[in-house]
Amino acid sequence: MKSPILFLPSLLPFCIAALLSAQTATPQSQDTRADRDAEIRELHKDLNRISARLSILEAEGHHVVPRGLGNDESSSSTPSAGPPVFSPTSSAATAGSAASPVLTTEDAPTLPFFRGTTINLGIDGYYGYNFNQPVGRVNLLRAYDVTSNSFNLNQASFILEHLPTITERFGGRVDLQFGQATETLQGSSVNEQRPQVWRNLFQAYGSYLAPVGSGLQIDFGKFASSLGNEGNYTKDQVAYSRAYSFNYLPFYHMGLRANYNLTPKVNVAYWLVNGANDTEDLNGFKSQAVLFTLKPAPTLSWNVNYYFGEEARDVQPMLNPGLPTSPTQPGLPTTNISPAPNGREHIFDTYATWAATPKLTLIGEADYVLNRTYAEQQPPRVVIGGFTIKYALPRHWNVGGRAEYFDDRGSLFSGTTQALKEATVVLDHTFTPGFLARAEYRRDWSNQRFFLSDTAGALKPAQSTATLGLVYWWGTKQGSW
After folding, report:
1. Angle between helices 30-59 and 8-24 (to 10 degrees)
2. Is the dihedral of CA 236, 241, 245, 247 positive or negative?
3. I need a surface site. Which of 165, 166, 234, 443 has the fewest CB within 10 A?
4. What residues pair up with 150 in beta bridges, in sequence order?
5. Residue 47: in which H helix or E strand, if any?
6. Phi (first) and psi of residue 178, to 5 degrees
7. Which pLDDT does position 101 carry in this prediction?
8. pTM score, two decimals?
9. pLDDT, tens digit, 9 for 90 and up, residues 290-324
């Protein structure tokens, strides 16, 4: 016997005819009108059920093909009597169809992958000029806009993301990165034992949304740090250059993280990671963090974070690539540092974002960092305070600014004990969704002669730069990357 599902499409004409007949009939009494209204409601329900069932079947790889209307061998110029036939279609059966794309049974394994998955591409480049005309055309204390009087490709990015949901609890994300920015991040030997292994991998983690309360999301892998208000992707920032705080605080971590919404206004997260900017651990200690995100109002978000761990190397770094000194991969160190560092780093980080009006956004940040190499030494420390403003102008223009104070006591950031300040003004324009031009003027000051000049060995207490950044992006991910 044929499945009754095969005859669902044939019921549609009769249901519609019955519905129209019921709607146009002349009422004879109050009782018959009530009966007819009830019958119409039932017919509506039947139609909705049939439509929903057809949608499900089509998504599973089937197609409704009325006889006499297809492009296969059974088609003819003479309409065929008999109801439409519901049948699975194959690539061979639909090869000649030019009317519309048809889902086939071969598509079934592919469709779940694209449901909820975003694929995104980005290109970020700039031209900058340093008015000090420094030797080597080098801008000091910059994370990304590192050279002067040169066209530069800051980064080209590829992002694949599938968010976990209550219906599909597994997900993940991969960010591939190419260009100048990799030398600041995972391509730097300051951060990694073997930077060339990780140079192009900015993020890569899997996610699971555990069915606990409102949903406990657990991620494993390498992920961008949430310490500090600025992030990696220029399109999501107010300024083109990054603040001192972005350049100093961790860029990324490798390990486990979990986050949970205690209430719609309070989220708590916990990290257990190798350390700050360590894809492969530089020591045996696992760092931890506790982070709170508070949303007391729809226009206000406040982050309060605490991170601690041992960040100093306990092994001698090796040149990699190079010949391995033992039967293992090149670059893996086998010489310990003695005595092993046992001091800890403590980061207290907080920032708040307030959309004061639909056009005006205000961001404030404060950080306090202690970092000892050995537990018995007096800790060097860093104190940071910053403020950012953005105002939306008509016709997709934005104006913004940033001011920051960075007290580097103990030369943790710059290699010199000094007080640093920077001020930045920004004007940008979005020509079309996916294309942004941003112009920026920035001045850095120090209470020491620190910045390069056009003469080797002659340092200046300040530097000024002008930068034009062009940012392009494509993809289906909405909002910030």
Report:
1. 150
2. positive
3. 166
4. 128
5. helix 30-59
6. -135, 145
7. 61
8. 0.78
9. 999 999 999 999 999 999 999 999 998 887 777 77
